[in-house]
Write a structure and sequence with these properties.
Chain A: It holds the Pfam family Molybdopterin. Chain A: Belongs to the prokaryotic molybdopterin-containing oxidoreductase family. Chain A: GO terms for molecular function: 4 iron, 4 sulfur cluster binding; electron transfer activity; molybdenum ion binding; molybdopterin cofactor binding; oxidoreductase activity. Chain A: One of its GO terms (biological process) is anaerobic respiration. The complex is a heterodimer of chains A (905) and B (353). Chain A has 26 helices and 29 strands. With 905 residues, chain A is α/β, with parallel strands linked by helices. Among the domains of chain A are: 307 residues, Dimethylsulfoxide Reductase, domain 2 (3-Layer(aba) Sandwich); 175 residues, Barwin-like endoglucanases (Beta Barrel). In chain A, the strands form 10 sheets. Chain A has a 6-stranded mixed β-sheet with strand order 22-24-23-29-21-27. Chain A has a 5-stranded parallel β-sheet with strand order 3-2-1-6-7. Chain B contains 12 helices and 12 strands. Chain B has a 4-stranded mixed β-sheet with strand order 10-1-12-11. Chain B is globular and about 80 Å long. The chains are: A alpha/beta (905), B alpha+beta (353). At the A-B interface, helix 3, strand 3, helix 10, helix 24 and strand 25 of A face helix 3, strand 3, helix 4, helix 5 and helix 6 of B.
Chain lengths: 905, 353
């Protein structure tokens, strides 16, 4: 979550769901909270019961809108324009929280003279490299307070790292994600102008940048009435001050865009200006869609991260531990201790084998050398570059955009391991996928050997979930899994055990990383399940005495401590499984600090030092949360302070101070190199230091703000299986957005097979407005066919006034189609896969696909069958001037069709 | 003690036999001893329903009901085309049914909001420090319809060239557990009975599938399972109640739209809620099934609706089908006497001849 990470220092929701009850206004934007997070939605209800205004901003009128005070039906893909308008409104009317902005943000920081804003370059920032479609961020830097790198212990090393930063392979490897817990590294603290008047101050740059985001412009771009915008602006600003706070809630309605990270950045700027970060009832809640999605980035399943948001070493940059930590060494903020976190991690993994002499086995870590993200890997599969693949609780043949292309990828492997609860489409595509009918996949020639391993469900295994608000909750095993179903922990532990067993006599140095691993978890029960608590304790880390650590502040870089994920340090403090705590709400305060355990250090609200003024006093009695207790000489309050307990509010760092000691007593954003919330991001976001409105990659509308139509750095995958619909094409004239329903779970593996859920939404359907139904002759309850440059799918039609066409000022009518994506051919409730229709276009920060905005055509009736389908789609491509999408056998590029079966490895 | 249709109210041995009108002690009327538990019920506040259907799923899970389609056809599936409602109706296999009603009008439509009575929160509210004790669960139920929010301007206007506003009503329907239950009154086998909690339950092992109850329910709730013949309906989780648990649907509801509890307490809560709504100018809000003078003597499961009952598929003026039973028996008796008289007269007359 680089949008939040770059703004505040950590890529997680700043507040917790229960805290929404303290909000005076809640804006739900880019989220269908009532449908997709119904349990958490009770706190929105609670806030409403206390008198809060609830605003839902979404192209569709959903079950969330049904409960809101106000629904704003903006055009798909225009949130930056809307939020940018709010920023301008706040700046113009001087409604920002001045004391907060001056003290806690980088508004006063000066940006270097080389920076040129997108307003002056037609939508591009300075430093754009059109050839590689990446930015060189050098010109976005602060004007330094001191010469760059003077604080570093090894200036030469750091300078060299800086140069390598600009290498295109390094840029493409997505360092933005590494801002998950710890803001992006910056060379030094900036020069400041506390009056905010300097023309190169962030505050003045911000004013100029958003000058054209007027209510009229918002109205035109978003397709809403100016009065609606004014009403939202009024409610939000009236409820953002010393006494009142406004919360913003988003989820994948923001992230799944080619400018997704910048949507979140825009919101971060607004909420920072309003002084809503680090305060009760404020904040930005990133709702995460699955039980442990936050956990899956904390202890990551991402190619470019190690646990605790430590970046994965890069082959070009990081040949040694020293090189790896050079960017952080001696810097201000908690990233200054990166070496201690990394050494503890290496000690956790390789135990006694990791010594100071061998760089604590740093060489054992695999190094990345570019973008190895999910969709890029699928492309590589089709090209025969990947031999094997593990699919764990993922159904790319349904859930990934352009699922057809994903199935081609899977068809070109040597082996595929699928661990799931059900026999999902990604395990049966080779014999049952829709491409058999069209002749594109041929089971006889598919070389992929599929191993299906039944998985245990969450009640059949023990362990923790880390949910949307960073709280780890332990659960016990309720029942034994049936038959051969096993937990993931069981699977990977025994897989590792067997591999090590096989290699035990190996003298090949490349096998050392596997053989030297600490792989000695106690097992129990008939099935030899590893003890999940032992794993949690290892993640927590231990000190020189072998006892569990209680804080990552205790971690050392000399190899005397261990820790599998530094941000989780403390979850096993005092040798107690803190995640298993279940103290009822009635027996503790509203913050419920003794229910489970939250990272970091059980702090429920991040940056809560900002809930007090620079002197350490609460901004107001009504919104008091954490404050300085002069008598006790410590920070105290309702939550664990997200600040050093005994650092006085008037502390000023001495000359040459490093890491956290270099942050002042009024620097609440402790993970940032300058301790401030970033209105302007000199680093950490690869597509610009400030957000700008770009149209989605597939849009039917011209960008009204800039010459630059779409995000200049967006990532595309080229190939016959991923053709793009041209912008503003008459052939694909309608906007389409995908989403989930309460009744089903994502790609449907957990719901389409269950009778009680399947009957509630029994078939694939699309939602269209009565106007579009008339235009295209569609009938409620009958079939329609949707066509893109990828393929065509058929769905039942639900005609509803909840979907609205948008009328733009020039008279253009933008029709929008809603398309839930749960279905495919398996299970009880079936249908075509909505994701077959989508292409893969990605946000350059996160490699997340733009599944919330694309284009298509819709016609009445069912789609053609078999090879006729291919010709039908191809005829659309010809009309639209798109290259052919015909593929060779099993999805291979016709040119490469003779490359053989399976991978070429 | 199990009481069935052999209860005094049915057999007519009770001099106070009543099949209509208010009944303060429905269990006592059914023959339970005085120390029986209080009458329980459901208050379904549709203004806070988010249509998640967790109630439907929890009900089917707990009661192991088969799936069916929107026409009540068992094990069949298909899109109904009626908004997000693919359940269609209450039936033998669906004991909770969430209705989805999409409305669009050119007039102001108040949207449901939550809020404490009289608290528009322009000055102060609780700080987080005191939040826990100050705002109780009950307060969360004191919802208001915020008419002001939408009367100021119309957020939906002009988007499609039509001055329409959209409102999406959701309501979880269920068996009403009537004070005077037609189904219970007509059951010839004693399969239907009044429980000690005042609810009405079918005993599957006694039901002979005659189907009289199906025709006698003024709401069309109780239904025969096609391939089985017996009738099924909501039991208000009788098995859970006897174990001190709440019904499955109420437990699953994330917004407390479905509230379970002692009926008198729920009624008081509902009255307060309605008063709040009316003070906010929401004239369309009403309670349904709350009035003990209505045709079924008031329902054990009653509702707060935001529109006419017909909009939700509910009968506007349900009357227990056995209301006129005494009169009918009286009339039938008279007729019988008369016929006997005629026959006797005829017989005697013929003898005379």
């Amino acid at each position: 979550m680089p949008g939040l990470g770059a703004s505040f220092g950590r890529g997680g929701a700043t507040n917790f769901l229960e805290d929404l009850a303290n909000s005076d206004c809640i804006v739900i934007e880019g989220s269908n909270m009532a449908e997709c997070h119904p349990v958490g939605f009770q706190w929105v209800g609670e806030a409403k019961a206390r008198g809060a205004k609830i605003v839902h901003i979404d192209p569709r009128f959903t079950r969330t809108s049904a409960i809101a005070d106000l629904h704003v039906p903006l055009r798909i893909g225009t949130d930056i324009a809307f939020l940018g308008g709010l920023i301008k409104y706040v700046l113009d009317n001087e409604l920002y929280f001045k004391d907060y902005v001056v003290a806690y943000t980088n508004a006063a920081a000066l940006v270097g003279e080389d920076f040129v804003d997108s307003e002056d370059l037609g939508g591009l920032f300075s430093g754009f490299d059109p050839e590689n479609r990446v930015y060189d961020e050098d010109s976005w830097q602060y004007e330094p307070e001191e010469p760059p790198h003077s604080g570093s212990e090894d200036p030469a090393e750091a300078a060299e790292q800086d140069q390598l930063d600009d290498h295109v392979d390094v840029k493409k490897s997505d360092r933005a994600e590494a801002a998950g817990s710890g803001g992006p590294p910056i060379p030094s603290k900036p020069k400041r102008d506390e009056t905010l008047q300097h023309p190169r101050s962030v505050f003045q740059i911000l004013k100029r940048h958003f000058a054209r985001y007027t209510p009229e412009m918002v109205s035109e771009v978003c397709g809403i009435e100016p009065a609606v915008f004014e009403q939202v602006a009024k409610w939000v600003t009236e409820n953002s001050n010393r006494d009142r706070t406004t919360a913003w809630v988003y989820s994948v309605g923001w992230t799944q865009h080619s400018v997704g990270a910048q949507y979140i950045r825009t919101c971060s700027i607004l909420q920072t200006l309003l002084g809503n970060i680090g305060r009760p009832g404020g904040g930005i809640l990133a709702l995460r869609g699955h039980a442990s999605i936050q956990g899956s980035t904390d202890v990551p399943t991402l190619f470019n991260l190690l646990p605790g948001y430590l970046p994965m070493p890069h082959a070009l940059q990081h040949q040694s531990l020293d090189e790896y930590v050079a960017d952080a060494a001696g810097k201000a903020g908690f990233w200054g201790n990166k070496r201690a976190y990394m050494v503890s991690l290496l000690k956790s993994w390789w135990g006694d084998a990791a010594t100071a002499e061998n760089d604590f086995c740093f060489d054992y870590l695999p190094k990345i050398n570019g973008d190895h993200s999910s969709y890029r890997t699928i492309t590589d599969m089709i090209k025969g570059k990947v031999s094997g693949y593990f699919l764990v609780g993922e159904n790319p043949g349904v859930g990934h955009p352009n699922s057809r292309m994903n199935r081609f990828g899977l068809a070109n492997l040597d082996w595929l391991v699928v661990r799931d609860l059900q026999m999902i489409e990604s395990a049966t595509f080779w014999k049952e996928g829709p491409e058999h009918e069209t002749g594109e996949l041929s089971p006889a020639s598919i070389g992929t050997e599929v191993f299906f391993m039944p998985a245990a469900t969450h009640v059949e295994k023990e362990g923790t979930f880390t949910q949307t608000q960073r709280v780890l909750q332990w659960r016990d095993k309720a029942v034994e899994p049936p038959d051969d179903a096993r937990s993931d922990l069981w699977f990977y532990f025994h897989l590792g055990r067997i591999l090590r067993e096989r290699l035990k006599d190996s003298t090949d140095p490349r096998d050392r990383p596997l053989l030297d691993l600490t792989w000695d978890y106690p097992v129990h029960g008939e099935t030899q399940d590893p003890d999940a608590e032992a794993v949690l304790r290892e993640i927590n880390g231990t000190g020189p005495d072998g006892r569990a650590l209680s804080s990552y502040m205790q971690m050392k870089d000399d190899g005397s401590t261990t820790g599998g994920c530094w941000i989780y340090c403390g979850v096993y403090a005092d040798e107690v499984n803190q995640a298993a705590r279940r103290k009822p709400a009635e027996e503790q305060g509203a913050v419920a600090s003794e229910w489970g355990w939250a990272w970091p250090l059980n702090r429920r609200m991040l940056y809560n030092r900002a809930s007090a003024d620079p002197d350490g006093k609460p901004w107001s009695e009504r919104k008091k949360y954490v404050w300085w207790d002069e008598d006790a000489g410590e920070w105290t309050g309702l939550d664990v302070p997200d600040f050093e307990k005994n650092k006085r509010p008037d502390y000023v760092p001495p000359e040459g101070a490093q890491a956290q000691d270099a942050l002042a007593g009024n620097d609440p954003f402790v993970m940032q190199g300058d301790g401030k919330a970033w209105l302007f991001a000199p680093a950490g976001v690869v597509d610009g230091p400030l957000p700008t409105h770009y149209e989605p990659a597939e849009s039917v509308v011209e960008n009204a703000f800039y010459k630059q139509q779409a995000n200049p750095t967006l990532e595309m995958i080229e190939g016959p299986w991923n053709r793009a619909n041209p912008t503003r094409s008459d052939v694909y004239p309608f906007q389409v957005t995908t989403y989930r329903l309460t009744e089903h779970h994502t790609a449907g593996g957990m719901s389409r097979t269950l009778p009680y859920l399947a009957e509630l939404q029994p078939e694939f359907f699309v939602e269209v407005s009565p106007e579009l139904a008339r235009l295209r002759g569609l009938t409620n309850g009958e079939y329609a066919t949707l066509v893109s440059a990828r393929t065509a799918v058929e769905a039942k039609v639900l005609v509803t006034e909840r979907v609205r066409p948008i009328k733009l000022r020039d008279g253009t009518v933008v029709h929008q189609i809603g398309m839930p994506y749960h279905w495919s051919y398996a299970g009880i409730s079936t249908g075509d896969a909505a994701n077959d229709l989508l292409g893969i276009v990605m946000d350059p920060n996160t490699h997340i696909q733009e599944s919330k905005a694309s284009t298509c055509d819709i016609v009445a009736g069912r789609r053609p069958r078999g090879p006729e389908l291919l010709e039908f789609v191809e005829s659309y491509r010809r009309r639209a001037g798109v290259e052919s999408g015909r593929v060779g056998v099993n999805g291979r590029d016709p040119v490469a069709a003779d490359a053989g079966e399976g991978s070429t490895l | 003690m199990t009481i069935s249709s052999a209860s005094p109210a049915f057999t007519g041995r009770d001099p106070h036999n009543r099949l209509f009108g208010p009944l303060p002690d429905v269990q006592g009327e059914a023959g339970y001893e005085e120390e029986h538990p209080k009458r329980v019920g459901f208050f379904t506040d549709t203004s806070v329903c988010i249509g998640c259907k967790a109630c439907e799923v929890a009900c089917k899970e707990w009661n192991t009901l088969p799936m069916d389609d929107s026409h009540g056809v068992r094990d069949a599936l298909g899109l109904s085309g009626m908004s997000y409602d693919n359940t269609g109706q209450l039936g033998a296999n669906s004991w909770r049914h969430v209705a989805f009603i999409e409305q669009s009008r050119t007039v102001d439509l108040p949207m449901p909001t939550f809020g404490r009575p009289g608290d528009d929160r322009q000055g102060s509210g609780p700080s987080p420090a005191e939040a826990g004790d100050d705002v109780s669960l009950a307060n969360a139920q004191q919802s208001v319809l915020n008419a002001e929010a939408l009367s100021e301007f119309d957020p939906q206007t002009g988007q499609s060239g039509a001055d329409t506003q959209v409102r999406w009503l959701m309501s979880s329907d269920v068996c009403k557990h009537c004070t005077h239950a037609g189904c219970l009154d007509v059951c010839p086998t004693g399969a239907l009975f009044r429980t000690e909690f005042g609810t009405v339950v079918v005993q599957g092992d006694i039901c002979n599938g005659c189907g009289y109850c199906v025709a006698s329910c003024p709401y069309g709730v109780i239904d025969q399972r096609k391939d089985d013949g017996r009738v099924f309906k909501c039991t208000m989780c009788y098995d859970r109640l006897t174990d001190g648990l709440q019904p499955a649907c109420a437990t699953a509801c994330p917004t407390q739209s479905i509230q379970f509890g002692d009926l008198d307490e729920l009624q008081a809560r509902a009255d307060a809620r309605l008063a709040t709504l009316q003070s906010q100018g929401v004239e369309t809000a009403r309670l349904y099934g709350r009035d003990e003078n209505d045709g079924v003597g008031g329902a054990g499961a009653f509702f707060l609706l935001l529109d006419e009952p017909e909009v939700y598929g509910l009968p506007p003026d349900p009357v227990v089908t056995t209301r006129d039973l005494p009169a009918m028996w009286k009339a039938a008796g008279k007729a019988a006497v008369m016929m006997v008289g005629v026959a006797v007269t005829a017989f005697l007359g013929s003898r005379k001849r």
